[in-house]
Amino acid sequence: MKFNHFVITLVSSAVAFYSQSSIGSSLVDTQQHQNKKVSTRIINGAAAKKSDYPFVTGLIASSTSESGEISPFCGASFIGDHYVLTASHCVDGSIAADIDVVVGEHDLNDRSTGVRYKVAQIYMHEDYDAFTTNNDIAILELVKPVTDVTPIKPLTVELEAELTTGDLLTVMGWGNMSTDDQSFPTVLQEVQVALYDQDKCNTAYNNELTDVMLCAGYEDGGKDSCQGDSGGPLVINKNGEWYQAGVVSFGEGCAVAGFPGVYARVSKFLDWIKQKKAGVSYQQKPNAGYAETDFEEVITLKYKNLSAVDYVITNIAFTDLNKVAQPTIESNNCNGAAIKQGESCEFTVRVTSTEAGEGGFGLDVSTDHPGNSLAKQYFSVNALEKTTLDMKTLVDFDRDDIEWYAGGDAVWQAQTAQVAKGDNAIESGDIQDSQVSVMLAVIKSDEVTQLSFNYLVQAEEGFDGLKIAKNGHTTEFFATGTSQTAFKEELLTLQPGVDRIAFIFAKDETDEDPVGFNKAYIDLVKTNLSNSAPIINLSQELYQVETLKSLVLDASTTTDEEGDNISYQWQFVGEQSGSTLTDITSSKAKFMAGDVAGTVEVTVTATDSKGAATSKTLSVTITKAAEVVPVAKKKSGGAAALLLLLSLLSLSLRRGK
Question: In this structure, which of 190, 206, 618, 646 has its CB flanked by the most CB atoms within 10 Å?
Fold first, then answer.
């Protein structure tokens, strides 16, 4: 059967189509296998009673509303404390934050049934093979323990040995009830299926089955699990208690004669289940996603204790290095200290890519916990080469905020046929079925808060299309179908620190429906900044100067919160009264007053290196130079006496005549 990606995307962002998985393999390849074989619905069953299966669990998208109908994209079963059992193929490529679970669900329209829980960690079987579906089992660790629900027990080896071919088991779920249409129930469905002869089942599946699989169904077909039931439990009642014999895994079609459903065989995973339930909590598959070739980052790895037994991390070993330099531990507050119940510790690791391509490394973390002495992790990164395209010209982007990288099976390229602005834009590479074309935008500035782009996509509806991965994880954005004829704009909110936005055009394994021009186009990329403008500080805002004299206008103590370089521009506002400005692009401008008294206004504009600007206005009062009034000099005392003597002598002579 062929999965419809569009439908599943609406149901759950957890199914991360078109992103690389955390162990480096492409999910397109994983999905190729799923499209052919994954078995996920109840065929010819009946509605289950409300209280029959309290352990039954549904996996839903974490974005699902808290009220109203829910839509499980996979089934699961509660196995005690913090833990839920499901299939690896249900969660491959997902992160814990993508998924919520609803335990004890019955009627999807009745919110009084089932209790919703957040997922803390995902543990896929370390030897899960997406192509053969071998070891198709996974455990979800919940943020809070489940209470007041009786967990289902795993079927032991001894109890399984008592089963014979033809014994009836029960499988349940909310999957499609039709083999040739879509008919999804709201009430939990159940159906009885017979334990199938293992040799006959193996022959039907071209001898591809392993001893960790079991089969259930009928030679004539007619009853089965299928689309929507993946990960759900195959159970049997023994002495009044429910035991889980299998996990819904895959099948050829649904209820097809000669092809029974195939299940992960729980009895083969008892030790693995016990280890994962021991209480050593960690992120199994940290994933950087697509990154630049010179990727270097410090990642944080956290360990928590959910058990009643204190444990110590005794050793950390790096293994299986692939296209990365030797990782180094930068800090470690675990340091051999006991981690008590409910407490955690963490260590940081510096990771550096050395070449393009899918790479990573393993971590073997040893502990002295009696239930889990070795936790295996795998960090992955897919490094891309820097693009040779002139992206500023092609997508009309005139800033230096973004570095561009390209990769996948065919790189994006320049074109002129489809544009949102100007004469050219970029298009996805010429890929074939089951291939991807990736363009990566790396933004390293904290001041960039949003990225917008215009896109145009035509591709096979629901199967091929354009996905956006942000910092290693797919978003809910998925452009598909053949109806789009004009560019549309999309806005992404970015996080502080480095952002890596991957534009991924991908194709599944076949084209059965119209594909249009079978391409994705991107144009008109923009970034929005949180950058603040400089703060202008003037030595003074009111100046006074005489005509034809000069002074210095000083803004040299202006500051910028982000520490950016600042440029200056001084200019007159209105009448300048014969005055002039020099050094107008300096933090200090020289003002020369004219010969006319009055008031002149001057504005200084400060602009940081990212374009944020602010202005401030100051006033200069010009006065006339003061006029000098002459003052008579006092005569000396000696001269005055001589004049007086001459005057008296003249008077005496006149009297003598």
Answer: 618
